[in-house]
Specification:
globular, about 30% helix, single chain, alpha/beta
Length: about 110
Amino acid sequence: MRFGIVGYGRMGRLFGRCLKGEVKFYSRHREMDFGSLGELYEWADVIVIATLLDVIPETLKELSTIASKRPRDVVIFDIAAFKREIVGLYREFPQDVRSPASIRCSERV
């Protein structure tokens, strides 16, 4: 499995060490494995957004735009996914993309 991590701070590096499989990073602040979020989206099976909370909405909107143009089977989640202001942003993704918004309140897990 290929994991693409957005963010190379403490949490991004922690996920990078803990995940089993091929792990690559994208960061807006330093040169990493990908030059753009779109490149990471095309490569990864699972995308982990491990950025600061105030950057997550912008990142999700950008990913949503990319995914709408190029839908594919990919899992996207972030480290703050169950914060109320973040959950609604996942509803903008195409149905092919699996995310925390895939779990509806009426479903029991």
